[in-house]
Amino acid sequence: MITSALLDAPTKTEKTVSTDESITAWALAARGGDADAVERFVRALHRDVQRYVAHLCGDPQAVDDLAQDTFLRALSSLHRFEGRSSARAWLLSIARRAVVDSYRYAAARPRLSDVPDWQVAVELSQPLELPGFDDGVALLDLLAALPDERREAFILTQMVGLPYAEAAEVSDCPIGTVRSRVARARATLMDLLREADEPAVLAAA
User: Fold this and answer.
1) How many Å apart are CA 49 and CA 180, to the nearest integer?
2) Residue 161: which residues within 8 A CB-CB, separation 6 or more?
3) Which of 86, 93, 99, 134 could be 56's S-S partner, Cβ–Cβ 3.0 to 4.6 Å?
4) pLDDT in tens, 173-188
5) 126: phi then psi, degrees, rounded to nearest 5
6) Where does the pLDDT of residue 156 fall: very low under 50, low under 70, confident under 90, or very high at 90 and above?
7) What pTM, to 2 d.p., does this model score?
């Protein structure tokens, strides 16, 4: 059964801060033409970008293309990156725009069939060691119960590891709104966890 470890964990550990500093340094070095820094930058954030676009888009088959588009846009825009925010937040903002642009493009074309749920793509890109996969209750099932905006805020802060200020930047909303969405998401998830506990408690009684 899912425990509340993920819900109670800090939103950003010292290790994540250190990683963000390194990634931002690589982005700045890549801007200067350092090929090794480009490779490190892409490798460090590839999983985060895949996970995020999988959450935003509804087509699992489009995740790889959207991630590639995100990095192509980022690398072509590196000359404008000045390190005022973390490279991770900057890149995820680009990922969001790539997804929005893909929706606009798709809207101009006839839709031939329904696409699978976003959860499939997230399942494929999500680390297996994340808390919440024991005893057959999937974290994704709980996340699916959240409204879209709360789910995005929770994923950005609790799974991707962005601080609230940078999650607000990515989501294009005030930081207070992100805090509220995360708090409400936590409350909903805790309620769902308790509901998942009840059948087991009743069976043991």
Assistant:
1) 24
2) 11, 12, 13, 16, 88
3) 99
4) 999 999 999 999 888 8
5) -85, 135
6) confident
7) 0.60
